[in-house]
Amino acid sequence: MEENQIIEQLASHYESIIRLLGDDPARPGLEKTPMRAAKAMYYATSGYRQNPEQILRSAIFDYAGSKIVIVKDIEFYSLCEHHILPFFGKVSIGYIPDGEMIGFPSSPGWSTCLPAGFRSRSGFAPIYAGRLPTL
Fold first, then answer.
1. What is the distance between the alpha carbons of residues 53 and 127, in angstroms, rounded to a whole number?
2. Nearest to 80 by CA among 128, 123, 20
3. pLDDT tens readout for residues 68-87
4. Residue 117 burial (CB < 10 Å; 0-12/13-18/19+)?
5. Residue ranges of E strands in the chain
6. Domains plus CATH for the chain?
7. How far apart are CA 12 and CA 56, in angstroms?
8. pTM for the complete prediction?
9. Are 41 and 47 in contact (CB under 8 A)?
10. The pLDDT of residue 54 is above 90
């Protein structure tokens, strides 16, 4: 299914939700809300349509040093898988490179593609940690 079709279907569902909750999606102020919400949800779940390994592999560089690399305050956002409400924060990563290092600042898509979707906050760290050793 193509992006526009998905967004149109999501908008239709948001229109139904607004009606079910007792409001009129056609009233002034709400007439564009279903489409806005659909586009926002499509964007917030973009991680399902990205390949984090591919993004990370494009940011790997040769590194001759042996000292620990620490990258602090990488921003992320996600949606709670239990309530579909947003949560966000910052993550810090430390690792000892083995001949190569990951250029996190040059790979901003990484911090959005891993968490972008439905996640539990308690299971969030393993999503990040579990991907690094596989590269």
1. 12
2. 123
3. 888 888 787 788 888 988 88
4. middle
5. 60-62, 69-80, 86-95, 100-102, 118-119
6. 3-44 (1.10.286.10), 50-134 (3.30.1130.10)
7. 36
8. 0.74
9. no
10. no
